[in-house]
User: Fold these one by one.
Assistant:
Number 1:
Amino acid sequence: MDKKKSFLQSYWGAALWAAFIMLLCGLPGQDLPNIDFWEIDIEDKIAHLGVFGILGFLMVYGFIRKNSQKNISRKHILILILAATAYGALTEILQGLLFPSRFASLSDFLADSLGAILGIVIAKKLLVKQR
């Protein structure tokens, strides 16, 4: 079987979810006021935690499907965390540069990263065979 096809078959859920996240990030927002870093919108951060948590979970699920095994090394966990965190950074950068009436936010990036890490940790606990 073609490796590229195998990769897509394994990670299709994570890829679709990542596209959905980008769609959400690109939707035109109302003109938002410049928010002080310490005035954090809790509901917004919970949404960021949730969508990136699901992404992290789906990435672990894809890894398990691709490798036909239920174990995963610390190195691979770190790679998944870095990939999800990089995607969170990309969404924030694009919001700051390309999407109308949207802005990049450090607190959103931190929530994205924490959500991805939590999703990966939860998936590891639920899906990965413990050694």
Number 2:
Amino acid sequence: MTWAPGFTDIGAHEFGGSSNDTTPPAIVSVTPGAVASGGTIYGDTLTEIAITFSEPLNLIDALATGSYELVEAGLNEAFGDLDDVVVPVSVAWLPGLNRVLLDLGDPLAGGNYRFTIFGNGGMHDLSGLSLDGDDDTFAGGNYERFFTVQPIVPPTFSGDTSGSGTEDGVPVTGTLAATDVFNTPVDDFS
């Protein structure tokens, strides 16, 4: 091929996909599992979310923070109003794994969350097909999940804890029987 004077190929828009690809990219897994299943995460442990896709994505789409949204419902615990809190994320692509890692910075505080990956106008594979976010086998549709972060509250004791052994000036003796009831699983008493 011979180029005419004044014409150059800068290679900026080369097609990296396959014209035979008609299957949109899909989400294979999201971890932690409680995010994907709409469950509850106990404690202040959630600092990242990993998303594995069925095939390589357009890297610009995969790394765009606007392709993802994590929102806390705010004080009224309802989504879609003025007290919602958008949680900023930073994005890393893990090459060869078809995986994106969202770094949330600080651990998420207790609350109700909505996690969205935008398939409508957001993610594309190397052939330009939009993400099948809603898992209906067709390109397009957003992946949206709701989950809860439940803080672990240390147990408290109520009643007279002065240790003086008296109640209203009268000596008190006896045996204290107590039962701990936890609202979250307790593991590893080693």
Number 3:
Amino acid sequence: MRMRKADTTMASIKEVLDQAIRSAGDVLLKHYRSVKTLETKGEIDLLTVADKEAEAAIIKVIHKAFPDHQILAEESGHIMNGQADYKWIIDPLDGTTNYSHSFPIFC
């Protein structure tokens, strides 16, 4: 679903958000209980394949629907359209430590 700038309404944003969440959720479920740590971002801040793939899935959905929106993504630092009217801030997996240890407390 690609939308024109004039089509940017709260309803269309919510629809794209729902699609992005479901896409990222599919990625997280695919890797759950089999995740391997890619790297650490700090002393205890983990980064997994699931983080990166979920972020890419979210970006793909948003960019397809709203190519003129700005996207700032936590894991990749991905920034698109720096002067856009609309900005998306993405944290693809909150609770990476729990997720990587198969504790079911993450989102």
Number 4:
Amino acid sequence: MVAVLRAETFYLPPPHLPADVWDDVPPAERVLRWHEIHAQRRLPHIAREQTADALYARIDAGRWIAEHPCGTAHVVTPADPWLLCTTCLDAWHPLIFPEDPAAAEAEIADEPRRHQFWYHPADEQWQTERLQRLAEHAGRGPAPQKGRR
């Protein structure tokens, strides 16, 4: 049984810092600290009052992630359901998780991490893309687009 990674267990301080140095940083903001260290550049402060469209969270290869419209994805957490894209820095996006994230994690817990995937049933865009990929891999060509013939 492999635990699904969340922001608070994925974005950890580097080894030269105390392990608890980010304990007071909200989980959604740990990606910002992590990015500043790994990209070696400071990010501007963007208040959480600046919000944008909601995004769906999903489990992808054993990690809770949310994908920004620009294509950048970050590890996220239901404990602090927000995303600020470190590429666009546009605004904070509220995240849509299932009502019971632990139940979604339990559905895929017995799978190896590389097979741990879960998608929100209301996320029509991702479901359409997933069906298209399945059709392409089955050798039938692209799946028909919704509303098109």
